[in-house]
Design brief:
The chain is built from 17 helices and 2 strands. The chain has 320 residues and is an all-alpha fold. The two termini are 25 Å apart.
Length: 320
């Protein structure tokens, strides 16, 4: 693996392990005695981590950063893998700032294909190739493991092409397949609490990788914990509202509808995936049919609660 590829993986791993600016600030303050705000003034997490890596290499403390991050979050497998590569004696000697510069230029060339579909109708079942992602990533690097014999190729291709709405809907379909259900059905609480860890990890890792750490279940869980939520499967109204505010599901005190979801990387971190949250837990919440349908169409304030709480509990159990 070239130094550029390794740095890209380091960037993704740091975003996955520390999915908020505050968590990075604490890492630098307590472990490296540095002030993140003196290093970068950016507000976008991807840019923050990019600049952090670049400054750390230029000033000669990149190795210290990697070691500190691994120490602070030893349970993050993505971080452990890239840390092992960068800290090994065989690490490449190509100047890292050169690779970062190339990465920055490549990132500016990326094109995301917009989708015109709206509402809750399933998006087109076709994959549009994205030139930048096709050139940058090797399909063979993706782990598409499944303990339920589910094929994740289509999900990977949608994400790779930047077709976020199609990937969002495909996520709903593959999760139904894992628990033995079909399109139009719901995942019950017991099924979610026993959701196969291999499949949950595969789905999450694909979202995290192809969104550059912006989207994914583990990203959402980290934000939920940061706002005071607990991964115990219980509904916490205060944490739920703060979570909605943080990831753009709630705007000015109102829960958005599916038509208002932003299927683009300009969306707040953790904004996606979202479709499955609007399609489960009617039975858990005791909603009548009319309320359940209205909730799916117009908002996320009630029907998604059980889905988030139950999913985050399962993610915690699977150590994602």
């Amino acid at each position: 693996m070239s130094s550029r590829q390794q740095l890209k993986q380091l960037q993704l791993a740091l975003i996955n392990a520390f999915p908020s600016k505050s968590s990075l600030e604490q890492l630098l303050y307590f472990e490296l005695e540095k002030n993140l705000n003196e290093i970068t003034k950016d507000s976008n997490l991807q840019d923050i981590v990019f600049n952090l890596i670049q400054i750390a290499e230029t000033q000669g403390w990149l190795v210290d950063l990697v070691r500190a991050a691994r120490k602070e979050n030893p349970g993050n497998s993505q971080l452990q893998v890239i840390a092992g590569e960068l800290l090994s004696p065989k690490a490449p000697s190509v100047p890292i700032h050169t690779a970062l510069s190339e990465q920055s230029q490549q990132r500016q060339k990326q094109l995301i294909t917009p989708t015109s579909d709206s509402g809750l109708n399933p998006p087109p079942n076709e994959v549009i190739e994205s030139q930048s992602t096709t050139n940058e990533r090797n399909d063979l690097d993706d782990d598409l493991s499944s303990a339920a014999n589910v094929d994740y190729t289509k999900l990977r291709n949608f994400l790779k092409a930047g077709q976020w709405k199609e990937a969002d809907y495909e996520t709903y379909l593959v999760m139904l397949s894992v628990v033995g259900r079909r399109n139009g059905d719901w995942i019950r609480a017991k099924e979610l609490s026993n959701f196969k860890s291999t499949d949950l990890r595969t789905i999450d890792s694909l979202w995290v990788k192809y969104s550059n750490g912006r989207f994914g279940f583990s990203v959402q869980k980290k934000i939920y914990l940061d706002v005071g939520g607990k991964p115990d499967g219980r509904y916490d109204e205060g944490a739920w509202k703060k979570f909605g505010d943080a990831i753009g599901w709630r705007v000015e005190g109102n829960w958005i509808g599916y038509d208002d979801v932003t299927f683009d990387t300009i969306a707040p971190q953790g904004h996606l995936p979202i479709y499955r949250y609007t399609r489960i837990y009617r039975y858990t919440l005791g909603l009548n049919k009319t309320n359940e349908i209205n909730n799916r169409r117009w908002g996320l304030g009630a029907g998604a609660v059980g889905g988030v709480a139950g999913l985050f509990s399962r993610i915690q159990a699977c150590k994602l």
